[in-house]
Structures are given as C-alpha cells and as structure tokens.
Write a structure and sequence with these properties.
single chain, 431 residues, alpha+beta, 4-stranded mixed sheet, binds ligand EPZ
Amino acid sequence: MNFGKIERRSFEIENTMKINGGIPLKGTIKTQGAKNAALPVMAVCLLLKGETLTLDNVPDLYDINTMIETLKSLGVEIEVKNSQVVFKVPDELKWEVSENLARKMRASSLVLGPLLANCGKVSLPLPGGCSIGSRPIDLHLKGLKQMGAYIEIQNGVVHASVKGKLRGRRIYLDFPSVGATENLMMAASLAQGETIIENIAREPEIDNLADTLRCIGVPVELEGTGGVRIQGIDKAHSGHDKVIPDRIEACTYILAGVMTNGHIKIEDIVPSHIDAILAKLEESGAKFSVKKNVIEIFPSKKKLHPVSIKTMPYPGFPTDSQPQMAAALSIAKGVSTIEESVFQARFLYAQELNRMGADIKISRDVAIIRGVDKLQGANVKASDLRAGAALIIAGLAAQGETIVDDMVHVWRGYEAIDKKLKSLGAQVELL
Ligand code: EPZ
C-alpha cells in the first residue's frame, strides 16, 4: 500500500503507544521532510523584510509547530497548506522570544543569527539542556561576537545587539556544530562584506540551508574543504524552496524492517545521505537494495553480524541513528560496540532496552551490546526523541506487548509514526 501524504495532525498528543510485536513489516512508505533541515530553513524567513518565503515538503511535527509559533510571536504571518508553508514577513519584526517557546526546543536558538542580522537586536532565553547532554550555544555566541555583536546573558536570557550591521569576517568553528554553522550562515547573509566560516558542519541539512539562502538572493559558496563563503547583501527578496527528505526517519524505518525481518520499501530517500548507515548494515549482513531514491529491505534467514560503530559529525555515522542501531544490534548474533562521540550522554535508552531482555552495558561513552536471541515486550519510557524511536522499533521486533510511554518526545520528530507503521502491517495503537 503506498502511504502517500497524511492529513496534518491537530497536535492533541497521545502519550502512549501499545505495540504487539513479532510481525514482519511489509509494504511501502515515503519519508517526511527532514525535521533538522526544516527548522533552520524556516528561520531564514527572519532575514526578510516585507517579503515572502514559501517552503515545500515541511513535515508535520511538534517541533515544526513550535517553530511556527515562535515565528508568529515575532510577527511573521504563516499559512500552512498541507506540507507547504508560506511565511509572510512584515517590515518590522519583533525581537524578543518568550521563555515558554524558547525552552520547548533547542532549535529556537536558530532565530538568533537571522534576527540579529535583520533587526540589530534579539533577546532569547537560553535553550534547555536535554537528556542527551548539556546543549550549550557558546560556539554560536562566539561567532556572533566575532562579527561585531555585543552579547550579555542575564537571568538565563541572551541579549544580543549590534550597532549598524554585523561585519563579515573569517570565522573558525572549534567544533563542526550544526546549529552554530546554521546560525552564523544566516547572520552572515545580511552582514557587511564577505564571511568565510571554516570547519563547518557538513550535514545535508547545511546544503539545504545554503539553497534556501540562495533562493532569497544570498550568494553562498560551500567549499569542499569544509568551509563556506557568504557575501552579505543589503536586502533579501522573496523565495521558494523545499525541504530535503529526512535521513534519520528513513534510517529508523530501515532498521524497523531489518529487526522485524520484513520486506519494505522506503521512497524519497537520498542514498548518499545515509551512506554510513548503509555501510554498517552491509557489514552486518542485512539484505537490502537501493535503486534511485528507493531503498528495499528484504527478509533474511540470518541474524545480523556484530559491528563496531563510532558516531561522528557527517559524513560519519550519525549520532541521531545511534539508539535505533543499538536496538537492531541487541538481537544480532555477537557482541557489538557503539561509541558516542558527539553528545555527552545519549545512552539512556539502554536501560529501557534491557527491560525488554537486551544485554547492553555502558562503559563511559561506549555501549557494549551482547546480542540476545529475542526481545520480550515490556513497559518502557522514551527519554528523548531518538530513544523513543529505538524503543518503538524494539517493540515491533519483540515477542508480546510493549507499552511505550512519554511519546511526546517521539511526536517531535516522527510524522504520524502510528499511521506509517500500521500501513506496514504493524499492530500499534495509541492510548
Ligand atoms: C543538531 O543539533 C540536530 N538538531 C541534532 O538532532 C543532532 O544530533 C546534532 O545536530 C548533531 O548532528 C537539529 O538540527 C535541530 P551540534 P545541534 O551543535 O545543532 C556541542 C535530533 O534527534 N556544542 O552539532 O544542537 C553540543 O553540546 C537532534 O533530531 C557545543 O559545545 O548539534 C554537542 O555535544 C538531537 N557548543 C555537539 O557540539 C555549541 O555552541 C554537537 O552539537 C554548539 C554545540
């Protein structure tokens, strides 16, 4: 059954999912627009004055809703037409973000760069940390200061301002931070002169942002050496762009197909965006084929072989797929290891998987995963977005019933995951 587009959610959040596991998934689904591309390209509208930005393939997610509310609170008029979102920007934007909205999502930090560049000032409550570690924005602030911003933090609120325009300059990122790269690219777009940012993040979401900046008239040159060159402009014009497919959502469903020994197709993927995952799946003996923008997962008589993984910035193995991969390796036929090098603490899901019969031990930043024959259904709790996804795919493969609580984390990043899984034959129910 071809899944097609879902109706948009009204965002009453069902907080529990019941899964009857052990059913091989079968069928075809299509990826959503990428959450982590949509959030920065939506913030691009804050670079406009009296112009319009139109974005296609925007996913229907809780975090997207939070960004829409945040942009509306700054004066942007927003029209949602299925997966197309139109942002009509006034001549004068507001520049203070409420605590309530800022604390809901770390990506609210992405309004800093464009607002400061366009309005000359911004007040933003510091984004909260979360269960995967502290989420500082020191690299964002350091780069903005280098561009001439005056920044002080009072009572947990960032107050940034600049006299006149930000100044273009050469910036070296101490770490290829995705968010810092995005914030500084947007800040550079209206700065005086040229900005060169080196050691940038190279995730596909950065290419998407570069395209969206170009569509409003900003000359952006991504350089193969891990740098970007941006010429600041005086005024950006209206533009129309689209959001790339969600590579992390795709990996989640790929691993669900592998874990349930199913036969599924996932349409609208970009194979090069998931090279690292496909390489590890091949190494572990999973059966799949990739044709153009479709990946097909085949049933296999053999269990996965154990593998060793270290998460790295792109193009390395993505930290956002680490929990889901751990779930898949928990029923491989040997001992696998996963080293988490991007975040401080991204293993909270392990104790929940162990409640399902997995055998995962954490030693500092390494998970040692001793494969077991089968997982058993259990009551588990999602601690964060990708941990929740890992528990759901584990529940699909487990024998018996799994109850996943705190689904509110999962709705942040997985559009209609219940409907998509049902279309693949899974027995899932929201309670
Ligand atoms: C983005 O977060 C993604 N979120 C994350 O996805 C993803 O895990 C992460 O990039 C890495 O790929 C969005 O795009 C909305 P970072 P971001 O800045 O920008 C440290 C998901 O599940 N750091 O590359 O916050 C930071 O603490 C989410 O979809 C600083 O120390 O990631 C972390 O250890 C989770 N100072 C590391 O760098 C800074 O100023 C990577 O952070 C910025 C970051």
